[in-house]
């Protein structure tokens, strides 16, 4: 496989158990540069287990996990970050009372040396934050404002821009639109598309096919820890994706049973 066609991430028949409980089994998908892989499923479908494996929180028990063609088994989230995999969780790692620019760096703030001492370089920090956010199409008047004053969609966008700025090659987004209204969800999806267009591989975790379909290039459906289906965008339309997510086959069987009862 050539470097140009090697997926950023590839999982093949990956599984994970916690004691006697099988949380994930036989899951396969790929994440390519400049594409969005959507992972869909209801609560308990296995989405969280899959992203924790990709993010280095847990290790898989079975199957193979490759990054840039190399088998990996991350020991920690730091290992994943070092390989360019950044995860933005639904609860967002932000400090509400801290400024936007301080949240943007959060432990990696630029400093200046004055003799033997180091001081926070506030001017550089604010300028870099404003430029990085503008590059993602986010125009904030004041990056000194507390991040808690931003809308949920804006906070998601700051977290996405932060991951892009610090060199992420793969961006994993855990239900970024779950708690948002229609307009705010649209803003976040626009920034997901911008991250994709900048050449990142994006993994979008969601239970909403209407959010996944406009930006997705491939769709992995999970149910009770197992794959329900895996499709390229050319292989499935929104109506069928929604039908499968809603348990269409089960509903049709139930409807038939009720009609013949």
TrEMBL record:
Keyword ATP-binding: yes
Keywords associated with the record: ATP-binding, Nucleotide-binding
Top-rank taxon, per record: Bacteria
Signal peptide: none
GO molecular function: ATP binding; ATP hydrolysis activity
Entry's transmembrane regions: none
Protein name from the UniProt record: Sugar ABC transporter ATP-binding protein
Organism: Prauserella muralis
């Amino acid at each position: 496989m050539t470097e140009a066609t090697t997926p950023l991430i590839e999982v093949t028949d990956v599984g994970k158990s916690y004691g006697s409980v099988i949380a994930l089994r036989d899951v396969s998908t790929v994440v390519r540069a400049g594409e969005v892989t959507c992972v869909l499923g209801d609560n308990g479908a296995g989405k969280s287990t899959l992203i924790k494996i990709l993010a280095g929180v847990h290790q898989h028990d079975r199957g193979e996990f490759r990054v840039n063609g190399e088998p990996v088994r991350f020991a920690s989230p730091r290992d994943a970050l070092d390989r360019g995999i950044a995860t933005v969780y639904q609860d967002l790692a932000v400090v509400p009372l801290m400024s936007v620019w301080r949240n943007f760096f959060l432990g990696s703030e630029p400093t200046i040396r004055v003799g033997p001492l180091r001081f926070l370089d506030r001017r550089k920090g604010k300028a870099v934050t404003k430029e990085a956010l503008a590059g993602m199409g986010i125009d904030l008047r004041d990056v000194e404002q507390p991040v808690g004053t931003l809308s949920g969609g804006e906070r998601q966008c700051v977290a996405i821009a932060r991951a892009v700025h610090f060199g992420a090659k793969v961006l994993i987004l855990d239900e970024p639109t779950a708690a948002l209204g229609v307009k705010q969800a649209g803003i976040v999806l626009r920034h997901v598309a911008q991250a994709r267009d900048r050449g990142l591989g994006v993994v979008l975790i969601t239970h909403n096919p209407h959010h996944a379909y406009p930006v997705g290039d491939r769709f992995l459906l999970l149910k009770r820890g197992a794959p329900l289906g895996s499709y390229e965008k050319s292989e499935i339309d929104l109506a069928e994706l929604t039908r499968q997510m809603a348990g269409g086959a089960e509903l049709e069987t139930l409807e038939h049973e009720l009609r013949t009862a």
